[in-house]
């Protein structure tokens, strides 16, 4: 055992998404700093493979929530051996916080600090059990003010946790800071959607928008991974609107940064209220403009007309108009891409994010 702190992240989802990437980025960073780092998962290959590639040790448990004492007993065995007063467990669902709090009692380790990150835009649960969980968590991180305000809506006057334990920390991504490359000069204009290919991300709207853009030399890259049945639905939709030849399908669990560099702008027309969009951030880090919906926290880190073009959710006409505007104006793309990159480097880079997270850990 070295003199560095210990950190465990609980990941109870068996799918890969933004919160899992957030946990992996954090684990990878502190592992590189010499901390003793571990991830506790449900033995899900989709998640485990990425942590293994990063060299993060894994602990497996069912992680089924409130009616799963076995997971608390498994975790308790690990908690007993962690160093005193410098060990942290980070969760991404409140039901996992319950697992950790029970494990602390079993292990008789009240010194272990529990940190929670709230990724969703949903109200908190106003029941005795959840209020008790909220109060026992040592630090609550909200990925945006939007996520926090929605969480606190059941308690307009008094939060169910200590206010000093609440932190609003906008997300980041653990990538090396590099200068953006120039956009491709030849060939068609490439718009890109990159992220998880699931309902709620506005992919249907993007496909519908293409129907009125056939006169442009424009292609849409749809890059990411999703359920094959849903992807078949999207392909049938594209064929029904006669835009299949305008789409490049890049189905892969990992979207390489080169795809962003080879694209002119991004299209992220989510219809969900998102606490924070890591795909939005990747576009900013690449120095590219984007078209997105401000239905969640997007307006906290993007500015309409300066770093992005905002469109209403599920509005194919508005999206098509914005796509035509960016596709037709190279100067506008360059100005917006440069502004987005400057905002990313100033406020949202990993070098800006991680000292704030470290302070939360060490001062909790």
How many separate helices? 13
Report on the biggest sheet: 7 strands, parallel
Terminal Cα span: 22 Å
Average pLDDT works out at 95
Question: If strands are numbered along the chain, what order do they take across the biggest sheet?
Answer: 3-2-1-4-5-6-7
- Would you count the extended β strands for me? 13
Uncertain regions: pLDDT < 50 for 5+ in a row?
A: none
By secondary-structure content and strand pairing, the structural class works out as: alpha/beta
Approximately what portion of the residues adopt beta-strand conformation? 15-25%
Write down the overall geometry. elongated
Structure in words:
The chain has 364 residues and is an alpha/beta fold. 40% of the residues lie in helices and 17% in strands. The chain has a seven-stranded parallel β-sheet with strand order 3-2-1-4-5-6-7, sandwiched between helices. Strands 10-9-8-11-12-13 form a six-stranded parallel β-sheet, with helices on both faces. Helix 6 (145-151) links the parallel strand 6 (139-142) and strand 7. Helix 7 packs across helix 11 and helix 10 packs across helix 12.
């Amino acid at each position: 055992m070295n003199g560095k702190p210990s950190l465990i992240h609980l990941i109870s989802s068996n799918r890969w998404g933004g919160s899992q990437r957030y946990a992996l980025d954090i684990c990878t960073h502190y592992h590189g700093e010499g901390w003793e780092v571990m991830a506790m998962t449900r033995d899900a290959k989709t998640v485990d493979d990425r942590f293994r590639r990063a060299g993060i040790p894994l602990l497996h448990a069912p992680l089924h929530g409130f009616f799963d004492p076995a997971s608390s007993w498994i975790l308790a065995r690990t908690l007993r051996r962690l160093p005193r007063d410098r060990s942290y467990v980070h969760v991404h669902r409140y039901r996992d916080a319950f697992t950790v709090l029970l494990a602390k009692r079993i292990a008789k380790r009240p010194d272990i600090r529990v940190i929670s990150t709230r990724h969703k835009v949903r109200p908190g649960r106003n029941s005795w059990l959840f209020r008790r969980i909220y109060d026992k968590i040592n630090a609550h991180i909200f990925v945006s003010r939007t996520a926090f305000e929605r969480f606190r809506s059941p308690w307009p006057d008094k939060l169910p946790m200590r206010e000093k334990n609440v932190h609003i920390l906008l997300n980041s991504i653990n990538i090396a800071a590099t200068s953006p490359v120039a956009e491709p000069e030849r060939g068609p204009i490439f718009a890109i959607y990159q992220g998880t290919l699931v309902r709620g991300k506005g992919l249907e709207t993007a496909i519908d928008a293409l129907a009125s853009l056939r006169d442009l030399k424009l292609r849409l890259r749809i890059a990411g991974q999703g359920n094959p049945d849903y992807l078949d639905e999207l392909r049938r939709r594209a064929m029904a609107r006669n835009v299949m030849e305008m789409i490049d399908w890049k189905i892969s669990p990992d979207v390489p940064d080169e795809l962003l560099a080879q694209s002119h702008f991004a299209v992220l027309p989510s219809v969900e209220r998102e606490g924070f969009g890591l795909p939005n951030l990747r576009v900013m880090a690449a120095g590219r403009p984007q078209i997105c919906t401000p239905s969640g926290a997007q307006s906290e880190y993007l500015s309409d007309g300066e770093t992005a073009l905002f469109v209403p959710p599920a509005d194919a006409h508005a999206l098509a108009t914005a796509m035509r505007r960016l596709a037709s104006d190279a100067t506008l793309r360059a100005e917006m891409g440069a502004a987005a990159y400057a905002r990313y480097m100033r406020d949202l880079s990993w070098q800006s994010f991680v000292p704030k997270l470290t302070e939360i850990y060490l001062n909790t």
